[in-house]
Amino acid sequence: DDRSRADREKEELDHAIALSLAEDLKRPNGQRWRSNTDEDYAWALQDSQLNPSFPPYDPSHYYPRSYKVCGGCNCDIGYGNYLGCMGTYFHPNCFRCRSCGYPITEHEFSLSGKDPYHKSCFKELTHPKCEVCHQYIPTNGAGLIEYRCHPFWAQKYCPSHEHDHTSRCCSCERLESWNTRYYSLEDGRSLCLECMESAIMDTGDCQPLYHAIRDYYEGMNMKLDQQIPMLLVERQALNEAIVGEKNGYHHMPETRGLCLSEEQTVTSILRRPRIGGNRLVGMRTQPQKLTRKCEVTAILVLYGLPRLLTGAILAHELMHGWLRLKGYRNLNPEVEEGICQVLSYMWLESEVLPDYRNMPSTSSASTSSSSSKKGGKSEVEKKLGEFFMHQIAHDASPAYGEGFRIANAAVNKYGLRRTLEHIRLTGNFPL
């Protein structure tokens, strides 16, 4: 209360007079305390009775000029301590945090509109927390909250986690939370729990999916006449195969699939690894010599990826094989990679949005995911499929990204068959 002593004394006097009048009305005649102020009120009462144009004086309606009502309980504040905020007055116990409901006793507090908060409660409500370390995201040198946010998953995290060796899922790209352990693959990659649910780990597991995607091509009158071998491999084996491949354009920073046209000996995964804690161990591999019987020697795919991502890679690489078997020669990377990405995107659409383009679905293919074995997909798997489609659509590379966007526009306008025919004749997409 920052008023002067004189103001406070005047307010106390006014309130005392009002209380005295109220008490006097309750006393029998002859027992009232008299004062000069009482005389004034008596004359006022007599005048009101003689002149009916004025209502009788009612002391219960008299309030001092400084009368205050608590904004919390709506009661008279009286003569104790009180707080003033935004033109409203409160009993100290009635000035409470809008979030936790406890009284605010600190000298500093936060306001949001007209709602008061403890500073700690307001920070809890408004200051973002890192989804990796679960601490408040720190401010930068300018005093501003700076964080990173994944464009699809909206995962917010401290910028420092991009450089402090925090594990990132090799499939969905999400960073590992400190209270959730990712699985470590033997080639150094990490896999989150959601991607692990439908991960395909060896060549035998992948065969049903591979044949289902070949059937998908046949359903679009794009049958592959040759039986192209398909192998699941580790990262090192895939990188070694890329070095031995003379032709082709490879996606950076990491290639996940390869359509071989040269004869090579490739180490494939014969038996899936077993789970040991948060590591996958005990994987068996075998070297396999690939001989060239046609324009395509084999298709290699990185192991340990979820079913939908593995299928998208297979659809992409099978399109490379189809183009070579059908005599599409010397295409520039934007055209070849762009149309291969379109087939990968279309297959994902058929899985995630089966009615979108009225294309055949391969959901009946056997996988390691129980939901897919029943012909349906969990919400987790659908969300992963949407993410893989988002990756293709927003790829920043000239060949895979811009090539896809031009190819997809052509297919949407002219159809797949006419677009392929135009590529065969001109080497470019129709405008």
UniProtKB/TrEMBL annotation:
CDD domains named among the record's database cross-references: LIM_DA1
Keyword set, alphabetical order: LIM domain, Metal-binding, Repeat, Zinc
Cross-referenced InterPro entries: DA1-like, DA1-like_dom, Znf_LIM
SMART domains named among the record's database cross-references: LIM
Domain of life: Eukaryota
Domain named LIM zinc-binding: residues: 68-128
Name this polypeptide is given: LIM zinc-binding domain-containing protein
Species of the source: Citrus sinensis (Sweet orange)
